[in-house]
Fold:
Amino acid sequence: METTAKNRGTLFNVATNYGGRQEIIQACQAIAIQVQQGLIQPGDIDEAVFEQHLYTAGLCHPDLLIRTSGEMRISNFLLWQMAYAEIYVTDTLWPDFDRTEFHRALCSYQQRDRRFGKV
Structure:
């Protein structure tokens, strides 16, 4: 709470013509080139190095994925970044997703017990 106490906005990403699998492949290729060039050693590759090569480098991972139209899948979207995101599914279609629907999603999110992989 202290870290985010002065936050005053929301970051909203729109990914068009995006594929999570392709993003991961491109990150692996970029890292492989760096290893091949001797810039890094294979043992130096960790989550931080990998994340530096994603399209979202430098951005925080999403806390909430809102899935419209009742679909129960993430559709190749931010596959790496969604590891600990909470998922909210609504039957509302995207064109009809309005402020009221967004408020419902946030209220649902507020009720979650976030453990980030911990038991």
In short: The longest strand covers residues 64-67. The mean pLDDT is 92. The chain has three helices and two strands.
